[in-house]
Amino acid sequence: MESLTMLLIMGHFIQLGVSVIPVSTIYSPDGDLIDCIYRTDQRAFDHPLLRNHIIQEYPTNMPQIEKSVQENWQIWHDTGEKCPAETIPMRRELNPVSHQKQHVHVPKEYEVANRATSGHKYAIAYMINRTNVYGTRATFNVWTPKVESAYDFSLAQIWLASGSYETADLNTVEAGWQVSRSRYNDSQARLFTYWTADGYNKTGCYGLDLPGFVQTSSTIAIGAAIGRTSTYGGTQFDMTLQIWKDLFSGHWWLALGPNLVPIGYWPAVIFTTLSDYATAVEWGGEVLYRNLSSVNTVAQMGSGEYADKGYGKAAYFCNLKVAENNHTLLPVQDFGVQADYPEYYTVKKSSNRNCGNHFYFGGPGPQRSEAVRGTTLN
What we know:
Structural class: mainly beta
Distance between the termini: 51 Å
Helix content: under 10%
């Protein structure tokens, strides 16, 4: 009789009570296992609203030509192996963790906003004049910020949202890079996606962890490590992400890179306030710092440097675009910025010919010499 260990070695994994046998397994140099599974076997279709869902193969009005991301964009690409046609690459989770952005309980409605944002620090840019929004695109550099506690994380992302915490109907779609030891068992920057339909209460999750996001790409693995990162004072490595609403299907599509390689989509039916359009767009950095270990750990954002250090030293978001009522992505003419803990993380607007209206963000976070032992930042 085969032991569980042998089954894992052979590429068989059991999650959520459903057995899935991969077509093949790719052993990444960084220790990740990338399982190639049939697209129809992904967890998205366990969602009660997606039981009879028909996969949209490709975004509407996008030429169906073969597109590829930058060579070796993710570390598992170094193997030279690829997932077969009709399959998707899925990073195997050997140590299951919370699928949400923090461990939660079911709160009373007035507790939702406080629970969802407790410990979270932001340095972001946002649209000033809110209208109906149908998409956004941005280019931002990738770093590996120092995050000492396994219970914290640091990320850079784009958000599209509608609804509010107060009415418990906040809907979001989010994507970017993230460093999280508890989730990925290392400190590498990794591609991530997230969504919620009720303010991070009962719905939503990362990547393909739970039903929701439908992946179509056979070349990009959500949750896998990004192959290169930026160097302080040296070469900057950035990524371009675009999220937009498909005019025909209504789904929110995600694409990566300057060639806009489609990764997959969030079906419109899983949302409420975001089913038709978004009312808010944000770009920037987020850190979860809770100091649960009571030893004043470090949690950097971006490069770990403040925004005023500028290009080559601070993290940036560049070439910001938004699609409004005409559904066409156009350069953002103006935007606001906000940093809720400016002593730890800052944000600064800038403009030039190459990046248009853009901004820098980040910071070192609480320093050991500045904090009281055991103090938790709310």
